[in-house]
Automatic annotation (TrEMBL):
<dbReference type="GO" id="GO:0016491">
    <property type="term" value="F:oxidoreductase activity"/>
</dbReference>
<protein>
    <recommendedName>
        <fullName>ER-bound oxygenase mpaB/mpaB'/Rubber oxygenase catalytic domain-containing protein</fullName>
    </recommendedName>
</protein>
<dbReference type="InterPro" id="IPR018713">
    <property type="entry name" value="MPAB/Lcp_cat_dom"/>
</dbReference>
<dbReference type="Pfam" id="PF09995">
    <property type="entry name" value="MPAB_Lcp_cat"/>
</dbReference>
<feature type="domain" description="ER-bound oxygenase mpaB/mpaB'/Rubber oxygenase catalytic">
    <location>
        <begin position="30"/>
        <end position="247"/>
    </location>
</feature>
Length: 285
């Protein structure tokens, strides 16, 4: 998604599709901050699609606005999974209006195939975190999350019938895209901006070395080569140590700490909705 805030954008009342099923299990995911660890790998997989990379490159000051983009993405995710109908309508209306201006000869942010791929990368990131830190999932558990993850696409106006009906269908779609999508020079530039951002608050900048270690160890092998982000022996050791220690410590962490960032994002979401109701856009929220 390409959601800069430099130009005020009025909300639109264009409808979204009804999703396949309510995101009951996804709420447990979104409410726990550990799942934010899958964000960078999901975004890099998104940029592997040339149209998504081109839209972001040409229509977003990505390099200097990483915190704002992350906040806007959090607004979308939390509205989709945890939001009230009023919050969904407000947030989605602004996002859809932004997307309306992101288009060119060979890309269009309102292309439902791009929404499908975006949703697929988010589901992939969730599965990575879940199985890395909490153990192998059963097919039945993963099937539930697959169906619920359709909401990431339908909220962006992907028709629900486009979403894979089974895990086999999803992984066939995923493997085909990972094997064939072209990682362009624009995508490589965006990947450097994402992995080595500037103008970050100190608290966020301090977490970036760990985020890079996790991301390079999670990227699909072909994309890691295309982006030149292969893990080194040292990063593999650091990653394994982090995973092992997190598996031990995580159950003992108070829930209030596990979802601290989520609570911050939800308060930001409510402020954005109030701003949209007052002005029609979320600038200043």
């Amino acid at each position: 998604m390409s959601n800069d805030e430099e130009i005020p954008v009025k909300a639109t009342n264009a409808p979204i599709f009804q999703t396949i099923t309510e995101p009951k299990e996804l709420r447990n995911v979104v409410e726990n901050d550990i799942y934010l660890l899958g964000g960078q790998v999901a975004i890099l997989c998104q940029f592997a699609h040339p149209a998504l990379a081109k839209g972001s490159y040409k229509h977003s000051s990505f390099a200097t606005r990483i915190p704002q983009r992350l906040r806007n993405t959090a607004r979308f995710l939390n509205a989709a999974v945890c939001g009230t109908p009023e919050e969904k309508n407000a947030i989605f209306s602004v996002i859809h209006k932004y997307h309306a201006r992101v288009k060119g000869d060979d890309y269009d942010a309102n292309d439902p195939e791009l929404h499908k791929w975006t949703a697929a990368t988010l589901f992939f990131g969730i599965i990575l975190v879940r199985e890395t830190f909490f153990g192998k999932m059963s097919d039945a558990e993963m099937e539930v999350l697959l169906k619920e993850s359709a909401i990431f696409g339908t909220s962006l106006r992907m028709p629900p019938e486009m979403w894979p009906a089974t895990l086999a269908e999803f992984w066939a779609y995923w493997d085909h895209n990972i094997a064939t999508l072209e990682v362009t020079d624009m995508a490589r530039k965006l990947s450097r901006d994402l992995m080595y951002p500037i103008n970050l608050p100190l608290s966020v900048a301090a977490s970036m070395p760990l985020a890079r270690i996790i991301t390079v160890n999670w990227l699909p092998e072909r994309l890691a080569q295309e982006y030149d982000l292969q893990p080194t022996p040292a990063s593999r050791v650091a990653y394994q140590a982090f995973v092992a220690s997190t598996r031990i410590m995580y159950p003992w962490i108070p829930q209030s700490i596990k979802q601290r960032q989520h609570d911050i994002y939800m308060e930001d979401l409510r402020k954005a909705v109030r701003r949209i109701k007052q002005t029609g856009h979320w600038m200043g929220a």
